[in-house]
Amino acid sequence: MKRIAAVALLLCLIFTCAACFPVDKTLNGFSMGSFYSIDYAGSASFGEDVKSLLDEIERTYSATDDFSVISKINSAEDGDEILLSEAEGEVFSRIFSIVDGTNRTFDPSVYPLVCAWGFDPPFLYNNKTPPSEDAIARARNACAIYYFVLSEDHRSIIKLKEESKLDFGGAMKGYAASAVADLIKDKVESALVNVGGTVAAVNRDYSIGVECPRDSDEEYAFSFTLGSGEVCATSGDYENFYIYNGTRYHHIIDSFTGNPAKSGVISATVISEDGLLSDCLATAAVVAGVEDALRFFKAYGVKGALITEDKEVYAYGLTVNIKDTSYVLHSSEEDQ
Amino acid sequence: MKKEKEKRRFSLFRIGDLFILLIVLCLVGAVLYSVFAPARGNAAEVYSDGKLIATLSLKKNTVYELDHMQIVVNGGKVWVEHADCPDKICEKTGKIYKKGQAIVCLPNKIAIRITGKGEVEAIV
Amino acid sequence: MTARKVTKLAALLAVALLMGFVENMLPPVLPVLPYCRLGLGNAAILLCLMWFDLPSAALIAVLKCVIIGIFSGAPISILYSLAGSALSLLGTWLLLKLSLNGIPAISAFGGVLHNVGQVLVAILLTQTTAVAAFLVYLALFGALAGVLTGFIAYFVYRAIPNGETNDDRKRDF
């Protein structure tokens, strides 16, 4: 009996010590429609807090959550006014300002078109066919950011057209990554927060690789260093797509054409200290094309890299190491 | 009277278990291998006079010609096929393929280094 | 099929379902493989094979997969578990018939097949072979979990051989 007690005590001691030593650990979870994981060094426990934060963001901003403010707006009728909390108002105003600044290449009001093309969640891969011209035209009629009027104090929003709908999906992963990073930065030695592919570096730099947008022998196309405090968001036509009759139809819809964006840019990576901004600009870059995207990067003072369908990589403000040598690097004059 | 050995319909262990055990041991071996396997390299970086002049993927069989030597990549390994240096140490180094291994030719100021997987901490 | 047999099958199914639901509620055993569970419900299926025959066990297995799939809110999982169960059931029945192995070993074999079946379906559905990388770990885990369920099934069988308790034998309706 004494021996068992001794062994048990020893095990407890070992586990306690293990818990105290900063060791590389990972925390996983599922929220906001995808996996999230945090690789961290440190011994604090914040799993519950992170999960509730992410769940709260989803409850508030998800287009598929029936009680979210987005759903309330989407199901509202002409002329309805929906009240926003201070936090929500701030998010709305930031997003609307980015819509303006990117010349509507990032446009959350494109949701009716996204649905028409079949990319509203849950996205099932099989048997997707492109919508008819009519369906596209009808959806396009409902897509315009002007159908949503945000009040001066950002505390309410008026919807002018019943069929119009908003979807903040192209922005919320970045917002969430930033929020989680802020939450845990005082609790860990260092961490890499990954929310559905958008990553935030906490307390130290991390080396990040960007996936090849098409099949490749390499694990990633290029790598770069994500500085401490920065958030990196990547958008591409390879994330959600289906192929019909040899043509690829993907989920980033160009509000000007009503079709999936075909600007030449098939993958955009944006790095900044504001996760929401990174996410929005990455989506905008895919729609806008190389020239305009680089202009946006410069205007917003962010760093980024674009991959075009011709396998060219344009880096802005970022030192990029090509891994898959079939991609050719073009650095802009402003790069470090 | 001789007692017959009771023949149960089902038992805890029988002779065939050795076969199952073999399968399980193979699985354990496979798991241990994937976890602890030597880090195979993915690419060979070629430096001339300290400057990176080429990155050759180990997955593509290539022949890379330089002024003074010929580098061959085949079957995931890289080596110097022939060089015009006097001692031919680079040729004699043979084939390298593991992360961190290198071939150096001092007279020609060429260095070939294997860079491995897992260079990045996350892929997005 | 007698009323007695139906009742017994129903009881086995109930146990299998209960195990399945409880396991789903618990946090994953291995964080890297979130949907990998102990599969204690398979002890009930194995017992069914030991007490009865393949068709009965197949019936319970199918019902178990469908019901758990519906109630866990992920109908797609029915496809995965049916594939895994089918392969596992066939292999287990075969070994049971051959009578060359002990019960825990048979169950381990079934566990491996179960996970192999699921991975195969995953590869077919997602059209990529990336899932195959996990196969070794899943197979090993399945084997070990199978040993556990095998032991459970064996000792239950010892206690209640032929699916009948002493009380059953005494009464005769």
Features:
heterotrimer, B: 124 residues, alpha+beta, four-stranded antiparallel beta sheet, three-stranded antiparallel beta sheet, 2 helices, 20% helix, elongated, C: 173 residues, mainly alpha, Arp2/3 complex 21 kDa subunit ARPC3
Overview of the molecule:
The complex is a heterotrimer of chains A (336), B (124) and C (173). With 336 residues, chain A is of the alpha+beta class. Chain A has a domain at 205-336: ApbE-like domains (T-fold), CATH 3.10.520. Chain A is built from nine helices and 17 strands. Chain A has helices spanning 2-20, 47-61, 69-74, 86-101, 111-116, 133-142, 169-184, 275-288, 290-300; strands at 24-31, 34-41, 81-83, 148-150, 156-159, 190-195, 198-202, 206-210, 222-226, 231-236, 241-244, 247-250, 265-272, 303-308, 312-316, 321-322, 328-331. In chain A, the strands form four sheets. In chain A, strands 1-2-6-7-10-13-14-15-17 form a nine-stranded mixed sheet, covered by helices on one side. A three-stranded antiparallel sheet of chain A has the order 3-5-4. In chain A, strand 14 and strand 15 form a beta hairpin. Chain B has a domain at 41-116: mini-chromosome maintenance (MCM) complex, domain 2, CATH 2.60.320.10. Chain B contains two helices and eight strands; from the N terminus they run αβββββαβββ. Chain C is mostly helical and 173 residues long. Chain C has helices spanning 3-25, 41-51, 54-71, 76-98, 103-126, 135-159, 166-170.
